[in-house]
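I'd like us to work through together how a protein chain folds, taking it slowly. To get us started, please write out a protein record for me. Go ahead whenever you are ready, and we will take it from there:
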Amino acid sequence: MTQDTIGRITADTTIDYGNLMRRRIRKVLLIGSSYDAFTLEEDGRIDVQISNEYIDLNLSNPPSFRRVSSSVEALELLRDDPGFDLVISMFNVGEIDVFHLSKLIREQQPDIPIVLLTNFSRDIGMRIENEDTSAIDYTFYWHGNPDLILTIIKLIEDRMNADNDILQVGVQSILLVEDSVKYYSTYLPTIYKLVLQQSREFAKEALNEQQQKLRKRARPKILLATNYAEAVELYEKYKNNLLGVISDVGFVIHKDDPASSEKLDAGIDLCKLIKKDNPQMPFLLQSSQESMRATAEELGVGFIAKYSKTLLIELSDYIGEEFSFGDFVFKDLKTGTVIGRARDLRDLQQLVMEIPEEVLFYHGERNRLSKWMYARGLFSLAATVRKLHNGSFDSIDRMREFIAQAIREYRILQGYGVVARFDPDTYDNYIGFARIGNGSLGGKARGLAFMNSMLHKYRFYDKYEGVRIYLPRTLVIATDCFDEFIRENGLQYVINSDISDDEILSEFVSSRLPESLVDDLRIFIRHSSKPLAVRSSSKLEDSHYQPFAGIYSTYMIPMTSNEDQTLRLLGKAIKSVYASVYFASSRAYIQATANLLSEEKMAVVIQEVCGTADSGYFFPTISGVARSLNFYPIGDEKPQDGIVNLAFGLGKLVVDGGQTLRFSPRYPKNVLQLSTPELALSETQREMYALNLKPEEFKTSIDDAVNLQRFEINKAKHFRNMRHVASTWDMQNQRITDSTFEDGRKIVTFSRILKYDTIPLAQIVCDLLEMGEKEMRCPIEMEFAVDMDVPYGTDCVFNFLQIRPIVDTQSNVSLDWSEVSPDGALVYAEHALGLGAIGDVCDVVYIRNEAFDSARTQQIADEIGALNNRMRAEKRSYVLIGPGRWGSSDPWLGIPVKWTAISEAKVIVECGLENFRVEPSQGTHFFQNLTSFGVGYMTISPFLGDGAFDAAQLDGEQAVYESELVRHVRFTEPLYIYVDGRKNKGIIRKG
């Protein structure tokens, strides 16, 4: 399919279905005697009957009714309350008859529709015919059918919305031409019943309740003409969006003509006029004269005898077949045998490729495919197909493929931006984001669903040449499934129990998932082709002010050829994520955030992993974390320019604080780590992660990386993806070349992407950050992955994986730093993030610089954790100072503490050493939690002159605790601490 074709189809994404049927009848005034009202309502409950009709047809917003018993009451009420949308009056209304009443109402409210509703009798008919009914919009005969009230309301609404919905959007219409009140009072309820039922059927193709509701607004409208001139006017105005015409044979020419002037063959004239203009327009003649059947046959149109005992059945059948209602039925052109039936787009896509050439030619020539699509509200797809004609293609096979591809693209685009309810009967490859259950999606899934809709809103998926942007195939298991799992397996006791993480995990994995969930997961697996990431999405996760980033587990499983085996792996992963709610670290974090463990609920996000398989491993070309706010800009960078951390392979390296490539998306060619060969050799990515595709490697473990393989970069140079991200160190010439074809050490520089724009990654990230920040109204952090290992000529894939807010809680108050001297300070930093003054802190825990050994960082982490527990018990806060990157998963880059192990720290200082220089923690889960809790954060490199750390002053204080590696001191008075995030400076000194 050409880009132009895709553009025509995706135009549907600009159609706001919410703007259809904007004008509604919400308040109805009913005028009639008590007897009339009782007769009309049968048992005095018209509100209930209409409400039930709306419910039965899945319609929303049923109107309310107000009843008065006389014309005088009506006029008084309308003067006091002008908010009525429709007036329905019975024939006998008291002092002022209905004809004069209608004129008075029209003078008072010129735009309100007025309908006369009366029982049928010849005398009343003659009276109406002899009166001036110019102020009455429609007259109907009451047959005791409550559907008629619904019909009147929908007919008025259709007339009010016709110009916008039909002419501007493309909603289809049916023209009924009939001057007999008796007959159109019978026909219209039947036609509306068909239309509304059809609307309900095609709305089932919608992917969720909201989409269903909006799609119903696209139902065909019904236009009623009671004379020849009005019929011609309506036809000429709406003919490009007309499904068909139903017409009487004899009727008057103009609205006010007497019945005696009826032209007996006006319907024949109308038929000839329309057929001359459009020979393919379906036309149904109806007459009380059976002799007109022959005339209809000569004209090649349908015919129904008005007095037929099967009148309504024949009418339904004709509309269903000729007006493109119901299934699309393909028949053998010679025998009339049904050879195919399309209930929905999926069926049609398949049948278009299978039906005989002459059948496809027949329907294509008559625009029947497009008409069927229009009737179902598929406007852009219908417009694309309608523009086709058989001469557009050099073969019928090309025509088949074009139509099938157009449907295929439409179905894919239909799934963009939508959270579909998971239905095992209709779930297929075209549904990208679905949910199981009715509970909460959880924070992570909620962010994904939001960005899914924003990517759709801003048309990101095809915005960049050579790259498709979308979420990976996603299934969310809502929190009510978690509740059911806990309840059915009797696991409530875990909430208050004091058992180890391993015991909790064992209990959960040995329990059973609900059978209905297992059945749904089996269907999901059948439509998945890649390994699956099973990710936590708790109610508290990724929320404002307490993101819970990286607190719960994420497991990855391979997709095997054995469905049952994959299902077992998936079930084990889901139950492991459930169990992580109750792990010790999770409990501690929930306690630190003043939340209750019993209130935490876990949803689960299951996503296909971005990437490709290579040598038994699976990973993407690029994983990254981008932030719209850069807390530590360098050079020409500004904080609002944002910051990106990229890694080759799985994103675990990035979010766990490993060595990655850092750059500003506004200046992708200015990368500090690549500014000299020495920095490139020492400061770029050292290792990468990949998923081991052997199913036996996924074992029950509290370590969610149990089946992830870590490779040193130079031992990963055989992977295909390396050619996209690596450069080569030319030792002989002491230079770096942007090629992987030469021999030598490989360095992950992403130069082909950042310097030569093989894909516009920096621009994509800039645009996504700008959009996300605009829509969330706060700085954001996002995770993404890119697959460039695609067949030649195929677009690369940019998968959006997660979004979360960055809490901007900086104080508006800054110090006058010209008045602040760093002399005598324990710590002074020129790179800092924080909230201003921090009080009531007397304790400092620091790592002895002279004893620091990067090989013993895990031992240091254990000591810090024990001290933190003691501080928590004593309800004390402290300043934490140490070299390298706090919270790194790589012990060679800093102290690998978990967040819960330093939860009582109010200020954290990363202090570089001359022989131990590491980039700060931006882009990690650890850093996200740190900034969200408002913890003061400083990074200093005294040897570079950007701050100071007076370790000697601390060494001179008496220790509360000290070991070979760690020291804890306590001052008698609170320290003076000020962290000025707006000016990026901070100071700590004795109070």
